[in-house]
Specification:
Elements lengths: L25 H12 L1 H4 L6 H20 L7 H10 L4 H25 L5 H10 L8 H12 L4 H8 L10 H29 L7
Keywords: Transport
Protein name: Glycolipid transfer protein domain-containing protein
InterPro entries: GLTP_sf, Glycolipid_transfer_prot_dom
């Protein structure tokens, strides 16, 4: 059985601690977000570079705040609320866009999990329309549209996830493993995105 992309992640969303009160550990959340951003390298096109850069740029805003006020930033929610109390919102705005980017990514992957015969590019397009597309300018929409059109076919996607060399094929064993790991990651990320979206709807989380 091959070592997959999921096995190489610094942190999986499935391993991000979520407290009984739905608080999310900041360091692990940011590590998992950075790890997920490497998925856009797996997709194999430079057209995805702006998508990856957008995610990582917002991660950096949260990391900068965490470094500036570590004792006030142990959880994602505390980081945002304490920043807002200081009459600042750089990291909180970064969190807003990071969650939107994660929502787009997980909706795309959910579509693939539920309908594995759908073209990956169609999964991304469908998810974009119901997530990031509602918040982007026309120009940014064109950038993302270009990236989604460059998505590989499903077989090539699995080859990349399984690190299969050129000319090789994905074994059924590896395909099953990838599907199980993908489903696990999607379920965990959906839960975290839902928690943070609900948090961001609260009056005290707005600026």
């Amino acid at each position: 059985m091959s070592t997959t992309w999921f096995d190489s992640l610094k942190k999986s969303f499935a391993d991000v601690p979520v407290g009984a009160d739905n608080t999310i550990s900041t360091t692990e959340f940011l590590d998992a977000s950075e790890s997920l951003a490497t998925l856009f390298d797996v997709l194999g096109s430079k057209a995805f570079t702006p998508v990856k850069s957008d995610l990582l740029g917002n991660v950096k805003k949260l990391r900068d705040r965490q470094l500036a006020a570590p004792t006030e930033s142990e959880t994602v929610q505390a980081l945002s609320l304490n920043e807002l109390k200081a009459k600042k919102h750089t990291a909180s705005e970064g969190l807003l866009w990071l969650v939107r980017g994660l929502d787009f990514t997980v909706q795309s992957l959910r579509r693939h999990v539920n309908t594995p015969t759908e073209k990956l590019s169609d999964s991304f397009r469908g998810a974009y329309g119901s997530s990031l597309g509602k918040h982007h300018s026309w120009a940014m929409g064109k950038v993302f549209s270009l990236a989604m059109g460059a998505a590989p076919d499903n077989e090539s996607f699995y080859k990349s996830l399984a690190s299969v060399p050129a000319g090789g094929s994905v074994s059924e064993e590896d395909k099953t493993k990838i599907q199980e790991q993908l489903t696990r990651e999607v379920q965990a990320l959906e839960n975290i995105v839902a928690i943070l979206q609900k948090f961001q709807e609260q009056p005290e989380a707005k600026w």
